[in-house]
Amino acid sequence: MKSNEPIRLQLYMARAGVASRRKSEQLITEGQVTVNGVTVTTLGTKVSEIDDVRVAGRRIAPEREHVYVALNKPRKYICSASDPEGRPIAVELLGKDYSERLFSVGRLDFLSSGLILYTNDGEFARAVSHPSSRIEKEYRVDAQKPIPETLLEEYKQGIVVDGERYALASYRYKNPRCVRLVLIEGKNREIRRVFAHWRIGVKRIHRVRIGIIRLGELPVGS
User: Count of CB atoms within 10 A of residue 30's CB?
Assistant: First the structure.
């Protein structure tokens, strides 16, 4: 970006590796962003590299080099940048290897494990996360009792749980209590909510693929 080429503030923040464009919009509306010393809450604001843009008091500028990392997240790690409860934070597993400020592309809940991407490229994060991109996310799910295929077919057609509609792209059995599920959107805690609706306990949720990126033999925490 040329210094005399103004762009929208949320895009500037995404290119600076603060967060995805959507999350950057949230930070703006929450009043956490200043431009040249003035708090800005209007999403249409435009800025350039000659402006003093700060998030929570820290000056930011567009990244010159983008970083893309695949992490095998362990269970009982959170994907947020911080946690008031003091639980382990997944991004800290990358700290010794990367000096850039990295954020997660999407989420894996606290008890789930497996593949998650980290980057400082907000545009990449938006493209991967947005449902319109139709990027598949594949999970191995281990249940406490057999999973009837009739329920998976119902899930594939689309089901409503507590007012929220969920739809499965495809599935494949490993055995009666273990199935591979492929989602496109992957809403917050979707698999756990659907299985709880079926009254089937979940022992493990492990993401093995995002689009063409497979977890493979990457060790836990690496």
Answer: 10
Cα–Cα distances in angstroms (integers) from residue 167 to residues 118, 133, 152, 161, 171, in the given order: 26, 16, 10, 11, 11
Supply the residues annotated as catalytic: 109
Question: Whose CA is closest to 145, among 177, 193, 192, 173?
Answer: 177
Query: For residue range 170-185, what is the model confidence (pLDDT) as tens digits?
Result: 999 999 999 999 999 8
Angle at 209 between CA 101 and CA 86, to 5 degrees: 45
The answer to whether residues 27 and 17 touch, using CB atoms and an 8 Å cutoff, is no
| Alpha-carbon Rg for the chain in angstroms | 20
Query: Using the 8-state DSSP alphabet, how is residue 191 labeled?
Result: H
H helix runs in the chain, sequence order: 9-15, 21-29, 122-129, 149-157, 190-197
pLDDT mean over 7-18: 89
How far from 210 is each of 32, 109, 136, 144, CA to CA, in Å?
31, 16, 6, 25
**Half-sphere exposure at residue 133, Cβ-oriented, CA atoms within 13 angstroms:** 15
